[in-house]
Structure formats: C-alpha cells, structure tokens
UniProtKB/TrEMBL annotation:
InterPro entries: PAP, PAP/fibrillin_dom. Belongs to the PAP/fibrillin family. GO terms for cellular component: chloroplast. This is Plastid lipid-associated protein/fibrillin conserved domain-containing protein. The keyword DNA-binding does not apply. It comes from Eutrema salsugineum. Residues 84-279 form the Plastid lipid-associated protein/fibrillin conserved domain. The keyword Transit peptide applies. One of its GO terms (biological process) is chloroplast organization. It is found in: Plastid, Chloroplast.
C-alpha cells in the first residue's frame, strides 16, 4: 500500500519552486509577497504586454501652420538668434549701394538692425583675439556714404553730376602681424567724349594699433593709385602727401573706430564721427 501511494504521488506535478531571498530571480517580472513568516518571490513569465520602453525625454518646440505641424529641437544657445540677426542686417543694407542711395528710413533701419546684432553678440575683446581682424574685408554698407561723398563725413570726391564718379568695390585689408591697414577703393572717373572713363584703384595705406579692448587707431602713411582698363599699362604711383602744416583740421591723418561685432565672416565698426560700417569677408 505504501508502494502504490508512493507511485501515485510521483505522478502528480511538482509544485512551483520557491525562491529564497538570497537567490537572484530570473530575468522576468517578479512580485514580492508573504505566504508564511518569511517573504518569498513568486516568478511570472515575461509578457509582451508588460514590456514598456521608456521614451527618451526631448524638449520640442512646435511650429504649427495651416494643415501642417512640424517639430524642431530648441536652440540650446544664442547662436541661432545671432545668425538670424545677421541675416536681418544683411537684408536691410543690401541694395543700398554701400549706403550711397540710403534714405533717412534706410539709415534708421540699418542702425536698429546693427544694434540688435551688437547686443546679441556681446562686448568685443580683441586683446587676445586680434587675428579675428586678419584678412580682406569688403565694405557692404557705410552710413556716411549717404552724404553723397566718397570721403563719408570727411572731405572726399563728390558723387554728383559735376564730377561723374562711380564707386566700385571698397575693401579693408588688415594684416595683424605687420600692423598694416589699407583702405582700397575702386573708382571710375568720367572723361569728356571721346575719351574713355578713367578706371583706377586707390589704396590708402595706414598703420594701426589696438587701444583698449576694441578700439582701433589708424595712422595714414600714403596713397597709391593703380590705373586699370585702357590705361592698365601705367605703373602704380604714389600721390604726394600734404605737409602737416597745410593739412586741414578735418583731415589730421589719423582716426579711430570701435569694432562692435566681429566673427568669421561679418564685422561691424563705428567710427569716431558716428559712421556705421558693415563688412563681410572677401
């Protein structure tokens, strides 16, 4: 009888194994409960319904348009604002022929756009970063050119009908190692028929030094003229400089300006007579 009882009990399925606390549970969902005085872990098979992947937390900005919703990552710095303000300034001053055709409203819009970019860019410090000025820069806009004078607020060739002068490209070439600072202007001066207009490039050579953190002082050296076009065979020649005693007070041969914004491809300066100038790298 005992033998048959043993045989019958051996046919019964074994109860589920109980895991003690000091054993690592299998990689499945477990529920802690208390059946007796000592807690046990009852193992359940993993179910696909119980598997949840925690989504990555992302900060998203929503742009909603008619019939369309798009998502973009928010900017983590102010670089996006600076780039948009640069585009705004460039769009304001483009088409003004370097400021020669700027109206009062154009001057005000350019001033406001420049101030926004200067504020976003923060103060300029060139004491340890002077090489930001290195290179050849093309003048895109000058508020002083609205005076219809190629000298800006200083004496210069007029752009009226009496002397038909057409201003071409204007550059600043800066060498931070030799401290050379050249203003280069391409001009075309009309001549009576049947003579062709005179095309020339004038280079006003200066030396510069840094004053403080962002002020540049330039000292005039000489003016060199190189003809082009039909007269390109003429070698470059220097225009004699007036002695200091004969130079008018408005043209002392020195000047200064502040660099109020600069990066790899755009520079804003403000002159000692209030000129706002915008340059792009050439």
């Amino acid at each position: 009888m005992a033998a048959s009882s043993t045989t019958f009990s051996s046919l019964l399925p074994a109860p589920p194994a109980l895991l003690s606390d000091n054993r690592s549970p299998p990689p499945c969902c477990s529920v802690r409960c208390s059946i007796s005085s000592s807690p046990v872990l009852i193992s359940f098979p993993r179910s696909s319904r119980l598997s949840f992947a925690s989504p990555e937390r992302r900060n998203l900005a929503v742009n909603s348009t008619v019939g369309e919703v798009s998502f973009r990552e928010p900017s983590t710095s102010g670089s996006g604002d600076v780039e948009s303000l640069k585009l705004k300034l460039l769009s304001v001053v483009s088409g003004l022929n370097r400021g020669l055709v700027a109206s009062i409203d154009d001057l005000q819009r350019a001033e406001a756009a420049a101030k926004e970019l200067e504020t976003a860019g923060g103060p300029v410090d060139l004491t340890d970063d002077l090489d930001k000025l290195q290179g050849k820069w093309r003048l895109l806009y000058s508020s002083a050119f609205s005076s219809r004078s190629l000298g800006g607020s200083r004496p210069g060739l007029p752009t009226g009908r009496l002397i038909p002068v057409t201003l071409g490209q204007v550059f600043q070439r800066i060498d931070v190692f030799s401290k050379d600072f050249d203003n280069i202007a391409e001009v075309e001066i009309g001549a009576p028929w049947p003579f062709p207009p005179l095309e020339a490039t004038a280079t006003l050579a200066h030396k510069f030094e840094l004053l403080g953190t962002c002020k540049i002082k330039i000292t005039f050296q000489k003016t060199t003229v190189k003809t082009s076009g039909n007269l390109s065979q003429i070698p470059p020649f220097d225009i004699p400089r007036l002695p200091d005693s004969f130079r008018p007070p408005s043209n002392p041969g020195t000047g200064d300006f502040e660099v109020t914004y600069v990066d790899d491809n755009l520079r804003i300066t403000r002159g000692d007579r209030g000129e706002l100038r915008v340059f792009v790298i050439a």
